[in-house]
Amino acid sequence: MKKILGFLLMGVACAFIANSAFAASYNTSTNWFDSKNVSHLNTIGQNIVKANKMPASVTFKVTDNEYMNENNTTTTQYVYIYSGDLKYVENDNELAAVVAHEIGHLVNGHYSKSSILNNAISSFNPNTTTEKGSTTVSLLKVISSNKVNKDNEKEADITAVDLLMTAKYNPLALISVVYKSDIAQNGGILDENLSCEERIMNIYDYANYNYPAKVKENYKTESYQSALNLIYANLKIRNADSKKLAKAKKEQEKLQKDKLKRMKNMAKSTNPWSAAYSMMNLSAQ
Questions:
Q1: Terminal CA-to-CA distance of the chain, rounded, Å?
Q2: Burial code of 19-29, b = ≥16 C-beta within 10 A, e = fewer?
Q3: Which of 104, 144, 249, 271 is 20 to 30 Å from 78 at the Cα level?
């Protein structure tokens, strides 16, 4: 798959007109700490939370600290949006995608779960004062963190797709942002933890399974069209193999069952984001 992405990156040379459905447009030099941009970020954020019946008292803030929300799991007062992610935003659909992804982490309680896991691993070997004990705990944290981060990103992505659809934003914008982020940070070289390619396919498959009409409408930005070439290359390989095709279908069916199970668990949660999200989704069943 790495060869596929590398080939496509070299071969993509066509430019497409950016989505014109929204008046606002941004680039890598946009100052997201400017009061007007922060105000507009809050407008987008409020559109998402209100449409999804989430806590409407929240204020969205821009931060240079990527981990700011980790200590912000039991309150709906603030949601911090990492400035590094905003660099890849071109329009309001993509701004909404970044916000929805962050809300996806909060809804699924990812920050709390990661903290609990690390504490559990630390208590697994109380003798961390020795070099061997400390190394063992550190290694376990790295291994578990990689697995958890991979699962968390996938959950946040598919939750974001649902949030965006309900708020009438194009969920394909999330693919566009992920693609641009990978190109800028890694030059298209796939990450060892959860690759750009894997994230893109997860988002596309989920959106196409649940909202096929929206996917058919397309999303005409240069970055999405480039990502679409990668998607089509993967689909061509999958469609030529009946086992891979059946596996992909079962994966989407499993995601639906897992989502319902998470909703029921969220209904019992003290996390206000989880509780609000579960109430809306369970009532729609």
A1: 37
A2: beebeeebeee
A3: 144
